[in-house]
Every structure is written in C-alpha cells, then in structure tokens.
Prior knowledge:
172 residues, alpha/beta, 13 strands
Amino acid sequence: MKKLLFFLALSFVQMSFAQENNLRKIISNNSQNVKIRDNKNLQNVLYVINGMPTFSDCSAINVQNIESINVLKGERATELYGYRAKNGVLIFITKPESKLLNLRNFYTEYNISKADQFLPIVLNKHFVDEKKYLLLDKSAIISVKILEEQPFVEPVLLPKGKAIYIEAMETK
C-alpha cells in the first residue's frame, strides 16, 4: 500500500512540475531511488530532505525510507528557499530510523582519509559539482571506492585522476 501511495504521489509531482517547468519525466528504474531532472538535465529541482537542502545529482534516497513528500513551486518555493528553488522544491520527510549522511558524516562513515577528502566525488557516474549539498541515505549506498581514474564521468569530463566513486541505487 505504501508503494502505491508513493507512486501516486510521484505521479502528482510529475504532473505538477511538468505544467510549470517543462519537466519531462520522473524515472524510477528499480523503485529504490528518486531522481528528477528537467528536459536539459541542467536545472535541477531542489530537494529538502528532513530540512536539509540538496539537489537530485547530489543525493540518493531509498524510497523505502520516505515517510512523506510535499511539493512547492513558483513564488512560494523561491520565497522560502531562494533562487536555488526556482525549478520547484520536493520536501521529503524520511522515517525516523533512516540514516542520512551529509559530506562530513559520509567521510567519517566510510573512513575517507584527510588527503582523499579533496578528491572529486562521482555519484553513479555523475560528477557532484557542489559537494556541500551531498546528502545520501546510507541504505541507498551500494559501494564506495577510491578510483585511480574516472573515464566515464558525465556530463562533466574531469581531468584523468583519482576520484571518490559512490555507487547508489540508481535511476537514469
């Protein structure tokens, strides 16, 4: 029943954002992660997860841990969250037992050395360009590795070199 309600909420979100922001699709390949992108993959919807702002390309959420979703758009969204919310806001409340990791907690949880904390972060083959907005549901993380090279990064091509690679429950 919860999954049905979740998918109905996502359908409403899709229709709501599509009207105002020309949002093409909400995709959930494996029903484990939520990612929303507009038609050019450039302007992301702002996520607010348990009061913490993030963007879809800086986050991974396990849908099993979502308790509620609210949608804000237009003037109300920008009034509350500023310019970052110009494409709308999805407000997620997760279940109390969910463990969300911001950048500092992520480094600690996965024993990332001080030297490696300066490396670029890649989440499911996408460069995380604003690390300060990184927010991950620990249960959505499949693996974390330090890569010597990251030749597959899209859409931004980084110089060849080391990177922190996070594989999470993915959608495309």
